Amino acid sequence: MSQQFTHNHDLKPERHVVLVAPEIHWNTGNIGRTCLAVDANLHLIKPIGFSLDSREVRRAGLDYWENVKLTVWEGFDEFLVDMAPQSGEVAVFSKKGAKSYWSMPSPQRLFLIFGSETRGLPESILERYANVAFHIPITSKTRSLNLSTAAGLALYESLRKAGLRHAWSLDTTRNN
């Protein structure tokens, strides 16, 4: 399949999932697989709480891990300098976010930024991006969603209006 996305002005949306100090390998593996499913980029900001060579990461990503568009950064500042997200191209996610993720913008290029599983995003990032801090609605019965669940929800919501088509319904000769 060539172009799997249709979007305003025929531009393919560019999505980047950014994990700041991820701690749990299977979450990162699951997020990598989800990124691959929609042709998104995965960025990991050190420190990382596991080895990327670990069997668990590969298992969570199954045999897809080597195809994930992955970049590992020494720190958040290095990521910002090299990727240079512009105004309107960043959405950070925290249960402290003032806006629901349903109101998230959907520009052509978007960086979805998440914190670690146990600490969330550092206050410095939350303060810097306070005007684009989003939450995914949950009840008071839980502290938070699993990181891979939250990343998947946000990534797909960011693509909802982009015309993502399901490749498997287009090619009925595949069995997997």
Describe the protein in words.
Helices cover 28% and strands 18% of the residues. The chain has 176 residues and is an alpha/beta fold. The protein has a domain at 8-89 and 106-116 and 147-170: SPOUT methyltransferase, trefoil knot domain (Alpha/beta knot, 3-Layer(aba) Sandwich), CATH 3.40.1280.10. Strands 3-2-1-6-4-7-5 form a seven-stranded parallel β-sheet. It starts with 13 loop residues before the first strand and ends in a 6-residue tail after the last helix.
| CATH architecture label of the domain at 8-89 and 106-116 and 147-170 | 3-Layer(aba) Sandwich
Considering the protein shown, what is the CATH homologous superfamily of the domain at 8-89 and 106-116 and 147-170? Answer: SPOUT methyltransferase, trefoil knot domain
Residues in β-strands, percent: 15-25%
Q: Which segments are poorly predicted (pLDDT under 50) over 5 or more consecutive residues?
A: 1-9
Tally of extended strands?
7
The number of helical segments is: 6
Helix-strand string: EHEHEHEEEHEHH
Largest β-sheet summary: 7 strands, parallel
CATH class of the domain at 8-89 and 106-116 and 147-170: Alpha Beta
Could you say which overall geometry the principal axes of the C-alpha atoms support?
Answer: globular
Taking the alpha carbons of the first and last residues, their distance comes to 16 Å
Report the radius of gyration as a whole number of Å. Answer: 16 Å
Which strand order do you get reading across the main beta sheet?
3-2-1-6-4-7-5
Which fold name is given in CATH as the topology of the domain at 8-89 and 106-116 and 147-170?
Alpha/beta knot
Helix content: 25-40%
